Amino acid sequence: PKSARRVVIAGVPDGVLQEDVMADILIIHFQKAKNNGGDVEDVEYPTRLKGVAYITFEDLEVAESVLKKDDHQLEDKRLSRPYPLRVTRYCENVFSSITSVLNMSVFKEQFVLEDLLQEVKRKSTALSFGPLQANGHISVQGSFPEIKLLRDFLLLKAKCLSEKDRRGESKSHQSARRMLHHQQANRELSSSVHDADEETQMVVLDRDVYLFMKSFFPRTLQGSADVVISDITDGDTTTLYIKSAGHGSDVGEVSRIKEQIKELSVKLYRALRKERISLKQYTRDEKERYQRLCGCLKLHFPQVLVIQYDTHMDLIGKPSEILQFTKELSSKIQSWLGRLHVRVDKSIPPRYQGAYDEKTEGF
Fold first, then answer.
1. Angle at alpha carbon of residue 101, lines to 97 and 106, rounded to 5°
2. Distances from the Cα of 304 to the Cαs of 94, 172, 212, in angstroms?
3. Exposed, middle or buried, 227 (CB in 10 Å: 0-12/13-18/19+)?
4. What CA–CA distance (Å, rounded) separates 293 from 287?
5. How far apart are CA 8 and CA 334, in angstroms?
6. Number of helical (H) and strand (E) elements in the chain, helices listed first
7. pTM of the entire predicted model
8. What was the pLDDT predicted at 55?
9. Among 95, 63, 108, which residue's Cα sits nearest to residue 270?
10. Count of CB atoms within 10 A of residue 2's CB?
11. How far apart are CA 320 and CA 96, in angstroms?
């Protein structure tokens, strides 16, 4: 299968060259014998993840050989220096690993960033951290639940600091180590945020899990008459803010709805699979044809979520249904292309071929 011949490339230099040029450089790198490479069937770059590309080889043996090479250095005369690449096996469950960039500079007035980073690394041993940049940015790679816990922890820490600032407490004259000691009570990875007048519960979800939940479990996200739920999407994550509708509302209802959302999100995270269909190589009419075919198949697969973008489509659902959906879609596309080829080549007089309408399969 194609997924077995696909690998994930992290560390691709972003913004250095044009995207199509960088894609060509990646193909050249992974075709070289010294990199254990071979014939490349497809390269997907750029992707939603910054600095990440997907390479699909024609042969499974080449993909396995590339994975065995420990050190991949991306070198080209168009690059100012070599760039180390991290090559990992592609997992069909795309929710298993994500890459995030943290902006640690917001803590630089309260903490020694290197000390704070060491604390974070001790708590998040399952995550892989890149070097701390001069601007305070650092890349983190790992499973979504681990990234989520780290994000919740840092958001809570930032929230506590902002509340202290509003109360007029001095921040610039306190030593970094005293602040770290003072924050020990808040190091538990919690996602609750308490305001002065009401309690707000915060839940961070994978964006695709949230979209699936919103489509097929809308009641879970509607809250109740006493609870209001709002959402903010940022990149690959969606943050839900769950709060009481009024001062007399039951705070326990907020916690109950939060736990209900978390429980459902965990189940979906473990059960769902996403398949991405690239549309970059197709014309506008062909893209519309793809979308119409997906709409027809959706009637037979009501539990598959189809998300359409300009350059690709995402299919989210149970693995068995996604597999069957993509098989039938591929079969219909091949059948349609075959009929179109026969009609254009054999059945349509040359002077009328330009008037053939692909949308209606007629003139």
1. 140
2. 16, 53, 9
3. buried
4. 10
5. 28
6. 9, 15
7. 0.45
8. 94
9. 95
10. 11
11. 18
In this structure, are residues 278 and 311 in contact, taking their beta carbons and an 8 Å threshold? yes
Side-chain-facing half-sphere of 38: CA atoms under 13 Å? 15
Whether residue 217 contacts residue 210, with contact meaning beta carbons closer than 8 Å, is answered with: no
CB of 221 within 8 A of CB of 258? Answer: no
Say if CB 329 and CB 286 are below 8 A apart: no
Residue type, 194: H
Q: Report the alpha-carbon distance of residue 49 to residue 12 in Å, rounded.
A: 10
Write down all domains in the chain, each with its CATH number in brackets: 2-90 (3.30.70.330), 95-187 (3.30.1370), 191-271 (3.30.1370), 273-355 (3.30.70)
* Residue 87 φ/ψ, nearest 5 degrees: -110, 125
Mean pLDDT is highest, among 19-23, 201-205, 250-254, 270-274, for: 19-23
CA distance 243 to 69: 51
Is residue 19 pLDDT above 50, yes or no?
yes
**Whole-angstrom Cα distance, residue 123 to residue 190?**
13
Q: How far apart are CA 313 and CA 122, in angstroms?
A: 38
Q: Which of 102, 104, 99 is nearest to 141 (CA)?
A: 99
**Range 189-192, long-range pairs (CB < 8 A, 24+ positions):** 189/123, 189/149, 189/150, 189/152, 189/153, 190/152, 190/156, 191/152, 191/155, 191/156, 192/156
Strand order in the sheet with 137-142: 98-103, 137-142, 128-129
What local confidence, expressed as pLDDT, does residue 175 receive?
40
Dist CA 317 CA 321 (whole Å): 7
Strands 227-234 and 199-206: unpaired
Contact 315, 325 (CB under 8 A): yes
Strand partners, 137: 103
